[in-house]
Amino acid sequence: MGFNAIATAAALFGLAFTPNYDEDQVPDYTLPDPLVMENGDTVESAEDWFERRRPEVLGLFREHVYGHRPGPPESVEFDVVEEDPEAMEGAATLKRVNIRSLHGEGEHAFELILFIPNDAPEPVPAFMLMNNRGPENTDPTREELSGFWPAEDVIERGYAVAAFQVSDVAPDSAGSFREAAMSLFEDPEEDRTPNGWGALAAWGWGASRAMDYFETDGAVDASRIALLGHSRGGKASLWGGAEDERFAIVISNNSGCGGAAISRRRFGETVARINENFPHWFCLNFREYDGRENALPVDQHMLVALMAPRPVYVASAEDDGWADPRGEFLAAYHAGPVFSLVGETPLPADDMPEPGEPAHGTVGYHIREGGHNLTPEDWGYYMDFADTHFGR
Ligand code: GCU
Hints:
Rossmann fold; globular
């Protein structure tokens, strides 16, 4: 067999890519400086950041990574289709809310599941999970319980807890992702534009419609909503939190490549790999950076920085090499100068903390033992972090 035949066979059987898990093989790289404008100007003040550099960085991520998402639809309507004041053995009130977006001739609906603690002073702050796993993880009947969304624990700590299925907003499939909410704004039969939004941006757009609902529900404090996602949901929570500053805390759990992990490290999953396997997640322009991470005008520390001055949390798991725990830590760390400039506390750790020892400033980080997952242990650290920032 000649080289080409071997390469073709390797590509066909998915053998062409060997992820790097060796820290010594991480290439040399220089991160773009979040505090230097594209024209070379230095960002000297918080005002400079908010008025000049932040819009520029947001625009760069829109253009090169996630795509431009549309604004809100012409109108959004909410119907509480079920309300049970005796949910969780009387500890909480369940609301199942149908969120309906109307735009032009189009209509799109998805469901928000919300539990509100019965004995907490209202309005209560809330955690909302962008659920990328099956609906059995967020069972409104509580017949099925899941550590992925330990709703009883969250209620016990005095928070409301909400979830929606990201696939209800945009199916997680290259063949059909444009057929739900995105079709309000574009024809799925037409070619995507190079900087048009992908599924990750669409999921964040859905989170914003849930926020529209919270703003109408007097039991929930819409100014204290923590947005949370795991893995592909964690990529979407970071981008959704960057696009919609109404989210008071943004949390990414094991979000990896295209989430919190520094792309230039090429550790575990890479830009080329993610674009090949998940062609519907990012904008088409992101493919220009397959194998050319150093040419990106941004890296993911700048995504974390877009949350400032709001608290943002990045979390890793020890055995989750594919998501590059060290790269996730470094993004949280290198967002620091922006947080300092705007008068907030950067990540209070110069190197990766030990598992189970979270570092909490306005930027938070932890790594825990175990593999790729969202667990009650992770939730516990997120609630500690929120307790601090929500002054509880
Ligand atoms: C795949 C993908 C990751 C993603 C993960 C998940 O492993 O390569 O980028 O984070 O799925 O969503 O669980």
